[in-house]
Design brief:
Elements (H helix, E strand, L loop, with lengths): L1 H17 L12 E3 L5 H8 L4 E4 L4 E7 L6 E5 L6 E14 L9 E7 L8 H17 L3 E2 L10 H9 L6 E2 L7 H6 L4 E7 L2 E9 L12 E9 H6 L10 H25 L15 H4 L1
Parallel strand pairs: 1-4, 8-9
Antiparallel strand pairs: 2-3, 3-5, 4-5, 5-6, 6-11, 7-9, 9-10, 10-11
């Protein structure tokens, strides 16, 4: 069922992004976004391209849609870890008014690997490798989610193949051509740089890749500030007091990691005892 849901999501994304939209006005102003900037500043700087959707729940969404024919370059500004992303179809920046002092706390950028509709899988693999290498070369480092075993490279990939649960992969390891075809839709790579978490996710139009059949690929970038990332560990009912609940919320994560590491140790897979998780929120360590 999950695969079907993601395939429908892929179709809707492509459909929404390829429709002609009179509101999408080209401008000489570069598409630069950054975590921490206020939504009002972002909207003022990128008018008239950007549109505000104020959700009743208190989330302000700032949206830009271009489509494949008018795909653009987005620059995520983050000091030495800034990233330029080509062939972007849409952008969504979010500001939670409950935590308005944080400004923009989450940014989603949807893009394609190339402006052609279909790609051979080996071509797609090499193009996606460029996305991962670009992030690593700009100071982003691998993140192993706190519930997963501290293993790397091909070990983590094989762990994904043998598990039904969500597993992120090691950005330092590029799957072989054969492994690439086996990747599940919604496979992701998680990274971190100076207070910001980045997830790069890949989706195909066809849930199961066939070597001889070209396919359409979409790439989804998700940037979050550390507070927004860690709020995700706390139940939504405690959203406003998430900081005081975080430590207890992370206990099950550590327990799950210990359980999984015992399982992989039994298979002879080495655990990286020297791996250090990204720091906890600055507000918690003061």
């Amino acid at each position: 069922m999950k695969t079907i849901v993601f395939s429908v999501s892929f179709l809707l994304s492509v459909s929404a992004c390829t429709k002609t939209n009179e509101e999408n006005i080209r401008s000489t102003e570069p598409n630069i976004v950054k975590i921490g900037e206020s939504g009002a500043e972002l909207q003022k700087r990128l008018q008239p391209k950007i549109k505000l959707d104020a959700h009743p729940a208190g989330i302000h969404f700032y949206k830009m849609n271009w489509g494949i024919k008018n795909s653009q370059t987005v620059t995520f500004e983050h000091g030495k870890s800034s990233l330029k992303i080509d062939h972007c179809l849409s952008l969504l920046a979010s500001q939670d008014e409950v935590f308005s002092k944080e400004g923009i706390s989450e940014i989603d950028v949807n893009c394609v690997l190339a402006t052609t509709d279909l790609l051979q899988h080996e071509q797609a693999r090499h193009l996606f490798e460029g996305h991962l290498k670009n992030a690593l070369s700009h100071g982003w480092r691998e993140v192993i989610p706190r519930y997963l075993p501290r293993i790397h490279g091909q070990d983590m990939l094989q762990y994904q193949f043998s598990n039904d649960t969500f597993v992120t992969l090691d950005a330092n390891y590029i799957p072989t051509a054969e492994e690439w075809l086996k990747l599940r839709n919604n496979t992701s790579w998680e990274l971190y740089a100076n207070g910001v978490f980045l997830s790069i996710r890949i989706d195909r139009y066809q849930p199961k890749a066939v070597k001889s059949t070209p396919d359409a690929y979409m790439i989804f970038y998700n940037f979050q500030n550390e507070n927004n990332y860690y709020r995700g560990f706390v139940e939504n009912e405690f959203r406003t007091e998430w900081l005081s609940k975080l430590a207890s919320a992370l206990v099950p994560e550590a327990e799950e990691r210990a359980k999984r590491e015992a399982e992989v140790r039994a298979l002879g897979i080495p655990i990286d005892e020297g791996y250090v998780d990204p720091p906890l929120p600055t507000a918690l360590t003061r």
